Amino acid sequence: MLELAMQMIFCLIISALLGGIIGYILGRISQCDKEHKEPLYDYDEVQQQAVSPHKEVFATIPDATIKNNIQKGIKPITLATPNDGEADDLKAINGIGIKIENSLYELGIFHFSQIAEWTKDNILWIDEYFNNHGRVDREEWVAQAKQLAVGIDKHK
Q: What are phi and psi of 27, to 5 degrees?
């Protein structure tokens, strides 16, 4: 009986020592990680400098070429800021990527309801602005926006 108790005590001491060693090693590893990890960027600083919510992606994804001198169509009605302070996720419309979404925001087009109200002249202006060559009609942005606008109204 005494021999069994001695074996149990020996096993407990060994397991305590192993646990201590492993804990020490893991602690040193995590301490090294904390000491050597520097943040990749200052989030607040990036937000203050950003013109649009996806500034980095906006600059790197070729989605459309923007023209400055538009001679066709009529510019759609725009807003200075989104209604209720929150813009719709225009990327929900098939054919609108991050770059076009940000460009639409910069134009003052924040909501599906705005796109849903575009006339043929507005579509012509947008196609000319983005140099899309009929993409708005081809991808049915207005029809998609009408469906998405109705879905949003039902949720409010």
A: -65, -40
